[in-house]
Queue: 2 jobs
Job 1
Amino acid sequence: MASTIELASAFIEGAPPGELADVVADVQALTSEGDDILPSLAPAFERYNESQLTTVKLPGSSQEVIVSEFNKVEGNRYFDSESQTSFEIDHTTQTASNAQSSPLESQNADLIKSLLKSLGVHAKEHYPNCSYGVYPIENDSAVAILLVANRYSPNNFWNGRFRAIYQVPVSSSSTAVTGKIHVDVHYYEDGNVALNTTKPVKISIPSVTAESIIGRIAAAERDYQEELNRAFVRMSEGAFKGLRRQLPITRQKVEWEKVGGYRLGQDISGGKGR
Amino acid sequence: MADAQFDSALDLLRRLNPRDTKANLQAITTIVPDLTEDLLSSVDQPLEIRRCPQTSRDYLLCDYNRDGDSYRSPWSNEFDPPLEDGTVPSERVRKLEVAANEAFDVYRELYYEGGVGSVYFWDLDDGFAGVILLKKGVTAGSQSSGEWDSIHVFEATDRARMSHYKLTSTVILHLANETDALGEMDLSGNMTRQVEADLPVESDASHIANVGRLVEDMELKMRNLLQEVYFGKAKDVVGELRSLGSLSETNRDRATQLEMIKGMQK
């Protein structure tokens, strides 16, 4: 049987966008351990932060930077290429400290800087509230391009998160972007409704320039959002309608006096030719 | 402490992915075994189907037709696996239960055009109570699927020539779609609503019609609500995260509009 720590860790990692603190409070109450359980959940907090692209404010700055597996330096230290700063994070409280200047050292430094610039323009045009980053990965042979957009509206019982994670091998000529887009929406007024999507992305890039890479990514994100919007309509018109009709085919509500009581209204079901 | 833990368990289940409610419920009761009974009777899960050995008809399982490890079939009134002294409704309430099953079978066919339904009644000191269960699944190819579970629990309290009805309804709706262009999309959840009403009762038959209309109206309301939340609200939130149009253009248009309004006010 799974241990309490394993079960509680799964709850932490399953926390919906913007509700980690609520889930932590529930876990603390359920286990009756309060703060004592937190140290044993540290690995779960780390996995949550890295996979959900948690953003933290740099000390003394209003700028939010991303925490991910791609910009990890070592231990709890991560690196932000745009501000050329490294910082430590407390995974449990999601706060940054001990920021240090840390110049971007990469043979692809110029490409990374142009990518950040183009990505910044793209992000501003389509994400009202987002953070992004571009980092050297895989022994400096590739770059990771990350974008996360969060909107939290707990007073209206909804929260949402959009994540895009791309990897681009850097070679002299053409390349391909591979990655994934995830959209998670939680609505919880008088219920619990979740939208979770995963869209794998694979785009070939004719030339390794920031403009062409970000241009293709922007087009893929737009195509995906349009497809997702169409999917809402398809589900509504398709599966949803197929589950339960709004009204019977006769457009009449049930005549309960005829079907109820102690006689079954054979005429009603029979009348439909069934 | 137990009350606080129960509230935390419900809060947690309201936050974690509704697709995983069954597994999460199991995990919570592993951590706090004392909550098992209370949680099982207050957290709605997708209904399971079983075939009645006596009548070969499908029926639905829930906490209200369970006694130990056995479930009572609404068609035969027998427990499976058989129980010597399983709890069954009184003769009068069983008669009502049989009538309600017949009535809701017609209802199910008219609205769901398939699926499985079951109605279970039980006696109360000053009336009776019951649960109406409806379930339907659809699969359109391998890439699209949907499942609907309705759970309507009511109490009917006797008053003079009237009955007071209290209905709590939950619909669990799961939809999934997968294509190359879309990737994976999962839209799952549950919503709960309550209603109370005092309605005239001439005979026991009135109960069936009263409960029938309450459930029919409730399902219509909930279907509209689900439509709004699943396909309206969820889509709107995606639009809040990412704007299809250019934000700078939107902001420019807004500024121009403000200028025009200012100009007209001069």
Job 2
Amino acid sequence: MTAAIYALIAGVAMGALIQRVRASSPSMIAANLRLENLSVIKFMATTIAVGAILAYLASAVLGKDAMHFEIKPTYVVGVLLGGLVFGVGFGLGGYCPGTCVVGAGEGRKDALVALLGGVVGALVFTLVFSSVIAPINKLMDYGKLTLDQVLGLPAVGVALGLGAIFLGIVYMLPTVVKKN
Amino acid sequence: MAQSATQAPPASSVAAGSSGVPAWAKFGVIFGVVGALSILTWGPIGVSGTYPRFIGAIMRRLAPDMAHANPYLEKMGSLIKPETFLLLGLLIGGFLAAKLTGDKAAAAEYPHAGEKTTARRYRDAFIGGFLIVFGARIAGGCTSGHIISGIMQLSVSGLIFAGGVFATGILTAKLLQKGGN
């Protein structure tokens, strides 16, 4: 069960980081989605850039088999539809499935309510999956598709390029766009 | 901390850390290291799959026949997975960070202009919670699994999901601000 211990440690770190950048604050999330304050978006982009560079450098040095990559399939219609539904909930509630758990740990009551909404959402999803969702997710399914495959370039190069682009954008963007 | 509906959170707490490096940059780098180490040691971080696995664990106790006849619950498998411990960690991490820094989170914030009562906030939080998990399960991942871990692994699905999330997320937040006044 060493994997569980690593996951627990990663979770504690992730929870603390989310709390520190106030990503578990619905007001902060709403301000980011209104594009008035970009701090959480810049936090996420920095995370992705640093993670991509380190993971693919490690993979280049240690070999792909030493890593635990897990690529999610690109079934275009379902992934996009899911994102659109998710965005409405994210904008309305100001929480995502992880930040409401962090918020609950902080003692936010609306985070607990969002968590409960998520559990009910999972229950309903479970009941309608076979009849409604599964057929949608068969549409335009390209399987486990990665950018380096699309571009026909080495993964470590693409990771370095993507990381540089993300960090460049983050560096250029202002953090506070509109003061209230 | 009581905030009025139209007020954005104070920028000072996130604009710059005590070292002069902005909090988002410092903590973003640390989170990137945590994400890469997770891929090295056990797997990419991801949260939303634990919700249906939790439903499965309950249903297998209360209505085992129904649980075993459900193809999605069978596919998602047991709750005894590293991801469940990740969620437990999120709860502990949020609690500890707030305790150690003396941050007192409001029981409920009111992020939108038109959201002035607690009942309205709880309604929005509940519907929001429902939609994020439902949407994430359609797509097969959420902010952590698809956007952070997904794009970190160069997956195309993560980029498509992120595009969808920010399209309706920005629209919803802007409409709620306008509609509320």
